[in-house]
Amino acid sequence: MSAESAELPLDEAPELPITTAMLEDMLRAKYPRDRYALFYDVPDAVSLDARRRIDAVAIGIWKSVGREVQAFELKASRSDWLREVKQVNKADPFVAICDRFWLVTADPKIAKLEEIPACWGWLSATKSGLRVQRPAQKIPTDHANMPWGFTVGLLRKLQDDLLSSPDVRSHINAQIEAATGNFDQRVQWAAQRAADDLKRNQDAIAEFE
Fold first, then answer.
1. Crossing angle for the helix pair 166-208 and 148-164, nearest 10 degrees?
2. Cα radius of gyration rounded to whole Å, the chain
3. DSSP letter at 13?
4. Which of 32, 45, 185, 189 would bridge 49 by S-S if both were Cys, CB 3.0 to 4.6 A apart?
5. Sheet with strand 120-126: strands edge to edge
6. How many other CB atoms sit within 10 Å of the CB of residue 45?
7. Which residues, listed in sequence order, are joined to residue 120 by a DSSP beta bridge?
8. pLDDT for 172-195, tens place per residue?
9. For 89-126, how does the pLDDT look when each residue is reduced to its tens digit (9 = 90+)?
10. Which has the closest alpha carbon to 71: 53, 50, 51, 89?
């Protein structure tokens, strides 16, 4: 497959600019919480032992989705990706412990196929979400010997994300929006009842007079 063949049709190209936060939301849409545990900005260890971080890690919860560990490197600009290419081996510690590794770009023009390591897959943003530009190869991984530092790093992210993750923020915003909508509706109902009561009282007074 050539780099040109990977480009999206114009009607599928995303409306720019697509930010890293938007790519994170697209990842959550592709890896929903009922089937995947998704973590962002995951370290390879904790405290002074941490040497590298990866933008996202998704772990399949159910056997039906493979229970694979997948890692993601997110890039929102061509210049950011070119910096990554110069030291692409910094992702090797995560590649070694994941079943699949993905590059995720905000636009298909950010990367070229020949620049992407052979074992990496490639996801690119479209108007309807993330599209597979190249499937990720299955990487032989021994989950029974997962590095303890990485496991602790995931647990630390789980603890931190209980309050600050995009998922929690989205849930809180949805609850606020629902509560605001219900409050506005109750105000409208109360106003209508007050108007109805006033009309009945005015009619009764008019009839009495």
1. 20
2. 25
3. S
4. 45
5. 36-43, 53-60, 69-75, 100-105, 120-126, 129-134
6. 18
7. 101
8. 788 888 877 776 677 777 777 777
9. 888 888 888 999 999 999 999 999 999 999 999 999 99
10. 53
